[in-house]
Amino acid sequence: MTKEQAYHAFVSGFTWKAYDENTVPDDAELPRITYNLSVAEFGYPVAMSLSLWDRSTSWTAVTNKADEIYNAIGLGGKIIKFDDGYIWVKRGQPFSQRMADENDSVVMWSYFDGRQEHTGKNDEKAA
Q: For 61-78, what is each residue's pLDDT tens digit?
């Protein structure tokens, strides 16, 4: 499994459909998770982000999913194995921020900040 596949599998493990933020189909339904993945050499943290999207008048589902992700990453971070190494996912600060969707008042959107470090072959490859 490549770095990209391993990270996608991790993000997809939270039961909501997950998409790289640049590959969301026009007909993608809510709720969903979007993410970005940047790749760098180990020891060089790179930014990562996740966004949770839901159509609701309540923050309950988004808040519960945010808590699930927060707990899965944990205080020391989450190690994700891929064929040639590991991705170390860590919480950023602030971890989560609620955002409004300018185009739809009932779309609930929460943005997550974090950091990743990678180790393995082809560390210099950019995703």
A: 988 999 999 999 998 899
